[in-house]
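User: Can you predict the 3D structure for this chain?
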Amino acid sequence: MLNVDWILLADRSRANILHALPDGLQPFPTIVSLIHGEGRLHPQDRDSDAAGRIQLQSGARSATEPHEDRRHVEARVFAKQIVEYLEQASRDRRFDRLFVVAPPEFLGVLRETWPHLLHRKIVREVNANLTQLPQAELQTRLAEIVGTVGAISDVNPT
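Assistant: Here is the predicted structure, written as structure tokens:
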């Protein structure tokens, strides 16, 4: 029985989920494209001009600094949206295996959000930002990535 393989190609502002066709057939059709506009904003457009202020018990006011970088917060928000889509698709048995291609900083955020059952479907993770490649080059690179796994039935047995 053939596995249904999907490829998640993502960065902090966009994600494409593609169907990895069997027997090396190309091009890989896009199943869904997700956009997170806030992930594209530059810090000066996303953040306010000044730190917030709080009133201390003594009556003095003090500037506050955010506890977490806004860029990382937005990346986590988008990663959760991607995971929600993939979880539903997994529950609906729309795919068997998942290849994940993302730049290192976003791949780390995705890893933090994978639930156990979804993590088990991941057969390969690639630290690379391929979202900006021309379509022909992208298809070639993805074929190489998918082709390295071949007929492996279970790479993530955890």
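DSSP finds five helices and seven strands in the chain. Helices lie at 43-46, 70-91, 104-113, 116-119, 135-147.
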